[in-house]
Design brief:
13 helices; single chain; 5-stranded parallel beta sheet
C-alpha cells in the first residue's frame, strides 16, 4: 500500500514539473498558433491552452509513474546502505556527530551572513563554509563527543552518589548486571554453559541471536543422526535456560542479510552492541579476538581449573593403546586429558608409574608428555 502511494506521489510530482515546464514553453507555443484559434473558448479561457497544459501535465505524470519503480528501487538500496553504515556506528558517536554537524552549520551560516554583501563570492561562501565546517563538526563530534559524554556521566554519577550516600546500604548488589554475553552454536550444543551458570561463576544477561536458532534448527532437521541429535540437544538446552533464567535469557531478533557465515554475524553483532562472546570454537575465538571482541572460551575455563602438572611429577596411568610414534603409549586422565607415554608401548593394558616430562597447553586442550623409566640392567 505504501509502495503504491509513493509511486502516485512521484507521478504527481512529475506532473507538477510538467505543468511548470509547459508554462515556461507557453510563449513559444503561442507564437506557433493563429491568434483566432487561441481565442476560441469560453469565459476568456482558451480551449487550446487548456488542452496544452492538461496534456503536458498528464504526459509528465505518466512518465513519473513509469520511472517511479526504478526511483524507489534505487532509493531503497541507498537507504539500506546508509542504514547499514549507521548501524555500525555506536549510538554515542552518532548522536555526538549529529550535534557536531548542527553546530558546524550554525557557525557557517553566522560567518556567511557577515560576508553576504561581498561581490561575487558573497552568495557562494555560505555553501562552502557549510560543507567545510559541517564536516569538521561531524569529525570533532564523533572523536571527542563520547569522551565528553563519559565525563558528564561520571560527573553526574558522582553527584548522585554523594546525594544517595545515606541510603547506600539499601542498594542490592543484584541490581547491577554485567555485560550481555552472546552464546554461539558450539556453546549451546556443548551444554556445559548451564552447569557453569548454576554454580554462580558466570552471570547473565545472555543473548542468543535468531541466526543461531536457525542453525540449530537446520542441524535438528538434518538427515545425519549425529547432527540431528546435536541440534535437538542445543534446542533443549535453550528451552531449559529460558525456563530457569527468565530475566537473564533473551532471544535477539537481529540479523545481517549481507552475511552468510554465522561466525561473522556473531563477531559483527558483538562489535555493534559491545557484547561479550561465549564460544568453544577455536577459530572463532582467534578471529574475534583479533577484531577486538571480548571472548569467553569455555575450553580455556576448563583448562584453567584442571590440576597443574609439573615436569618431574610421577603419575600412575593406565596405558590403553599404542601411540603413533614407535615406543609410545597413550593414556588418559579422568578429565579426558591425553598422556603420551614414551617407552609405554610395552605396557599396553597395564598400570604403570610415569614421570611427566612436559605439558602442552592450548585453547584446544591440554596434552601431557611422560616417560616410563626403564629399569637399569
Amino acid at each position: 500500500m505504501i509502495y503504491k502511494l509513493l509511486r502516485y506521489a512521484i507521478a504527481i510530482l512529475f506532473g507538477s514539473i510538467g505543468y511548470v515546464g509547459a508554462d515556461a514553453l507557453s510563449t513559444l507555443i503561442l507564437s506557433l498558433w493563429d491568434e483566432k484559434i487561441l481565442q476560441m473558448g469560453a469565459f476568456g479561457i482558451s480551449i487550446i491552452m487548456i488542452l496544452y497544459y492538461t496534456i503536458g501535465t498528464l504526459i509528465a505524470a505518466m512518465i513519473g509513474y513509469l520511472v517511479s519503480k526504478y526511483i524507489l528501487r534505487v532509493g531503497l538500496t541507498i537507504a539500506k546502505q546508509i542504514e547499514r553504515i549507521l548501524s555500525r556506528v555506536p549510538s554515542q558517536q552518532l548522536v555526538a556527530g549529529t550535534i557536531g554537524l548542527l553546530f558546524g552549520l550554525i557557525i557557517a551560516n553566522l560567518i556567511g551572513m557577515a560576508f553576504e554583501r561581498v561581490p561575487i563570492i558573497g552568495s557562494y561562501l555560505p555553501i562552502a563554509l557549510s560543507a567545510v565546517l559541517g564536516y569538521i563538526g561531524i569529525r570533532l563530534g564523533m572523536d571527542k563527543g563520547p569522551d565528553l559524554y563519559k565525563a558528564m556521566v561520571s560527573y553526574t554519577f558522582r553527584g548522585l552518589r554523594k546525594k544517595s550516600e545515606p541510603t547506600k546500604k539499601e542498594v542490592s548488589p543484584q541490581s547491577y548486571k554485567g555485560a550481555t554475553k552472546v552464546l554461539d552454536t558450539s556453546v549451546v550444543i556443548d551444554g556445559r554453559i548451564m552447569d557453569i551458570v548454576k554454580t554462580g561463576f558466570l552471570e547473565g544477561p545472555f543473548a542468543v541471536p535468531v541466526f543461531v536458532l536457525e542453525e540449530l534448527q537446520k542441524l535438528s532437521d538434518s538427515s545425519d543422526t549425529l547432527k540431528r541429535n546435536r541440534g535437538r540437544r542445543g534446542l533443549d538446552l535453550l528451552q531449559s535456560m529460558r525456563e530457569e533464567l527468565e530475566n537473564s535469557m533473551e532471544i535477539v531478533d537481529f540479523d545481517y542479510d549481507d552475511m552468510q557465515e554465522v561466525d561473522l554475524k556473531l563477531i559483527r553483532l558483538s562489535i555493534d552492541k559491545g557484547w561479550k562472546l561465549i564460544t568453544n570454537d577455536f577459530n572463532l575465538n582467534k578471529i574475534a579476538t583479533l577484531q577486538g571482541v571480548s571472548v569467553l572460551n569455555l575450553n580455556d575455563l576448563a583448562n584453567a581449573i584442571k590440576p597443574r602438572m609439573m615436569s618431574g611429577e610421577t603419575l600412575s596411568v593406565h596405558i590403553i593403546k599404542a601411540g603413533k610414534e614407535p615406543h609410545q603409549g597413550i593414556a588418559y586422565l579422568d578429565d579426558g586429558t591425553m598422556i603420551v607415554v614414551e617407552n609405554g608401548v610395552d605396557y599396553v593394558d597395564q598400570v604403570v608409574d610415569a614421570t611427566v616430562t612436559s605439558v602442552l597447553q592450548t585453547s584446544a586442550g591440554r596434552m601431557i608428555f611422560a616417560r616410563v623409566e626403564e629399569p637399569e640392567e
